[in-house]
């Protein structure tokens, strides 16, 4: 957590010093804590040794207020006009943007929106006393994208079951990979895992039997299976390449790193 915002002011009276600090911070008195460092003094005969009031004003953390100010500053820099609509749901701060021509906030397949969300969470949680989660959306884009990914997962899952060959999707963010995993996790004929390194990490859909391991006490069985699996995977990649090109799926296959995205 970063250091809190603190402003010190001097004036003829404590009230004037506090008002000067609030004007600089553009906040109300309920948003700050005031500590009087020094009371004003009129001095001898009201002329000699006069001392002004000195106060220290500390800004109280407020996730909602700080988030709105952070986003407004970013939009002002980007010269973007957007209505910001906040809503708390299950202790998660959901913020929706509405306006014209907000595609710049979404980016390619949500890349810009994900980056803005990451930066917002990082900035606000550095100042917050307790960690909160902030989700940004542009006119329900995330729900539409999720529905598209679920349809894609079902369609490619059906292809894997028909052909018996694995399919690798294009690289996706961790959030989108989780959507693919969740959409297919209840299918008894399919398995999914992720491979590669971010930002090129992708989901692979395979027939259930491709994930099986040989049983028995033969110490060579695992190596024999591994060799058969590698040959099968190599053959599969070659056969599925035309489909991957049509679907925009990455052709470069990295070393398998099975595992559900967290």
From TrEMBL:
Similarity comment text for this entry: Belongs to the KhpB RNA-binding protein family.
GO cellular component: cytoplasm
Entry keywords, A to Z: Cell shape, Cell wall biogenesis/degradation, Chaperone, Cytoplasm, RNA-binding
Domain of life assignment: Bacteria
Gene from which the chain derives: khpB
Domain R3H residues, every copy: 143-209
Free-text domain note: Has an N-terminal Jag-N domain and 2 RNA-binding domains (KH and R3H).
Gene3D superfamilies registered for this protein in UniProt: 3.30.300.20, probable RNA-binding protein from clostridium symbiosum atcc 14940, R3H-like domain
Organismal lineage: Bacteria, Bacillati, Bacillota, Clostridia, Eubacteriales
SMART domains referenced in this protein's UniProt entry, alphabetically: Jag_N, R3H
Region (Disordered): 206-262
Organism (species): Heliorestis convoluta
Subunit structure: Forms a complex with KhpA.
GO biological process terms, semicolon-separated: cell wall organization; peptidoglycan biosynthetic process; regulation of cell shape
InterPro entries recorded: Jag_KH (IPR038008), Jag_N_dom_sf (IPR038247), KH_dom-like_a/b (IPR015946), KhpB (IPR039247), KhpB_N (IPR032782), R3H_dom (IPR001374), R3H_dom_sf (IPR036867), R3H_KhpB (IPR034079)
Primary subcellular site in the record, as a coarse category: cytoplasm
The name this protein goes by in its record: RNA-binding protein KhpB
Protein's cellular compartments: Cytoplasm
Biased composition (Basic and acidic residues): 241-262
Function field: A probable RNA chaperone. Forms a complex with KhpA which binds to cellular RNA and controls its expression. Plays a role in peptidoglycan (PG) homeostasis and cell length regulation.
Annotated segments matching region Jag_N domain: 8-58
Pfam families per UniProt: Jag_N (PF14804), KH_KhpA-B (PF13083), R3H (PF01424)
One Gene Ontology term of the molecular function aspect: RNA binding
């Amino acid at each position: 957590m970063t250091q809190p915002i603190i402003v010190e002011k001097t004036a003829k009276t404590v009230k004037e010093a506090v008002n000067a600090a609030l004007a600089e911070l553009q906040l109300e008195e309920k948003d700050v804590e005031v500590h009087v460092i020094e009371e004003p003094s009129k001095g001898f005969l009201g002329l000699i040794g006069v001392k002004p009031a000195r106060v220290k004003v500390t800004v109280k953390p407020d996730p909602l207020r700080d988030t709105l100010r952070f986003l407004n500053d970013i939009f002002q820099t980007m010269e973007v006009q957007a209505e910001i609509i906040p809503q708390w749901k299950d202790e998660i701060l959901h913020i929706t943007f509405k306006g014209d021509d907000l595609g710049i906030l979404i980016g390619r397949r949500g890349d810009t929106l994900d980056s803005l969300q990451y930066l917002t969470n990082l900035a606000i949680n550095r100042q917050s006393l307790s960690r909160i989660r902030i989700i940004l959306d542009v006119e329900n884009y995330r729900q539409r994208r999720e529905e598209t990914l679920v349809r894609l997962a079902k369609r490619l899952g059906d292809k894997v079951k028909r052909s018996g060959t694995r399919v690798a999707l294009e690289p996706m963010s961790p959030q989108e990979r989780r959507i693919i995993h969740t959409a297919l996790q209840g299918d008894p004929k399919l398995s999914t895992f992720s491979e590669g390194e971010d930002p090129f990490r992708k989901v692979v859909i395979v027939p259930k039997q491709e994930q099986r391991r040989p049983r028995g006490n033969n110490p060579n069985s695992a190596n024999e299976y591994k060799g058969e699996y590698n040959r099968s995977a190599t053959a599969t990649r070659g056969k599925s390449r035309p489909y991957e090109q049509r679907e925009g799926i990455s052709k470069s296959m990295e070393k398998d790193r099975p595992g559900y995205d967290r």
